[in-house]
Amino acid sequence: GQNIDQPTEMTATEGAIVQINCTYQTSGFNGLFWYQQHAGEAPTFLSYNVLDGLEEKGRFSSFLSRSKGYSYLLLKELQMKDSASYLCAVPNDYKLSFGAGTTVTVRA
Amino acid sequence: KAGVTQTPRYLIKTRGQQVTLSCSPISGHRSVSWYQQTPGQGLQFLFEYFSETQRNKGNFPGRFSGRQFSNSRSEMNVSTLELGDSALYLCASSLSHGSTEAFFGQGTRLTVV
């Protein structure tokens, strides 16, 4: 089975940087996803890492270390619209197993 | 290209009733997965359908069932509703069985009273 852990909540100020960590234990590894979910809306795809290292996409970057079972999502130059829940997920047996999600609150 | 469409968006039912939720995947996508999202449990996998067949099932009681039609649209049914079934039910559309990328619909918010 899967065991995926991420912090419950994080708060940061506009313009700052926030790093959301995710640790996982899985019987087989087929990559790791990050999704963003605003309240009352669908989760939207942010990133997919299958190889070790950092992948940058504009203000958002995602890092993976397979040997450590660890990933993080880095949000730079935070904006108010980044206030949302961020979900870490690993695919296994043709389904996604999700962490509980990290609620990020951006303050002015 | 239209996204994943779930209907209805909101639903209120009483205990003991049954409910049917609908999901239309992205055009050309043939795999549909269903998830339940609650504040306490997060996103939990219910089942996946591909080519009108259930390919994968999560750890939910038999009251939760689903089906997929030849046009890839899917429905899920919950019978004998319980208060604990109150949740956001999300449908995810993928190109094929085993595709890693999934696109989510807006969800159906079910409240059981």
* Uncertain spans of chain B: none
Along the chain, the helix and strand elements of chain B come as EEEEEEEEEEE
Number of helices of chain B: 0
Strand tally of chain A is: 11
Uncertain stretches of 5 or more adjacent residues of chain A: none
Bulk shape of chain B = globular
Helicity range of chain A: under 10%
* Percent of sequence in beta strands of chain B: over 45%
How many beta-strand elements of chain B? 11
Helical proportion of chain B, percent range? under 10%
Describe this structure in words.
- With 108 residues, chain A is an all-beta fold.
- Chain A is 0% helix and 59% strand.
- In chain A, strands 2, 4, 5, 9, 10 and 11 form a six-stranded mixed beta sheet that branches. A five-stranded antiparallel beta sheet of chain A has the order 1-3-8-7-6, with no helix packed on it.
- Chain A starts with a strand and ends with a strand.
- In chain A, 35% of the residues are buried.
- Chain B has 113 residues and is mainly β.
- In chain B, a hairpin with a 2-residue loop joins strand 5 (42-50) and strand 6 (53-57).
- Classes of the chains: A mainly beta (108), B mainly beta (113).
- The interface between A and B is medium-sized, with 23 and 24 residues.
